[in-house]
Amino acid sequence: MIVLLLGWLGLFGIGAIPIRSWTIAKHAWGAARHRRRLLAALLLLPMVVMIPIDLEIAIRVHRCLASQYCGPSVASGWLYLAFLGLAYAVFEIAFLGVLITKRIKHHRMRLGESSS
Fold it and tell me: What residue ranges are annotated as transmembrane (predicted)?
């Protein structure tokens, strides 16, 4: 059951990862313009790691669907997609963690300015 749920998430992730990566790149570009290079690097790190994983698994799934032999069992395609689903979930959690950290830091800076 968990393999199917992660597989469906991976199937969604094949299309969502490039879109989310573009969003991350826009955030990183904005951070880099404001001289926050560490934040820009932290925003780009999940994207740089995720794009090759997405491409590799998308190629494997394509080969699985386009050829007569997919793997040792019928579930090989679902296992590929489940791995991508797990990687996509980690990708989103990492991106969310960086954004939450950024907002907490910004909020603390605003509180420090208002108390002075």
Answer: 6-25, 37-59, 79-100
pTM: 0.74
**3-class secondary structure per residue, the chain:** CHHHHHHHHHHHHHHHHHHHHHHHHHHHHHHHHCCCHHHHHHHHHHHHHHHHHHHHHHHHHHHHHHCCCCCCCCCHHHHHHHHHHHHHHHHHHHHHHHHHHHHHHHHHHHHHHHHC
Q: Is the dihedral of CA 70, 9, 20, 49 positive or negative?
A: negative
What confidence tens digit (pLDDT) does each residue in 36-58 have? Answer: 777 777 778 878 888 888 888 88
Cα separation, 9 vs 82, whole angstroms? 7
Query: What's the mean per-residue pLDDT of the chain?
Result: 82
- Domain residue ranges in the chain: 2-115
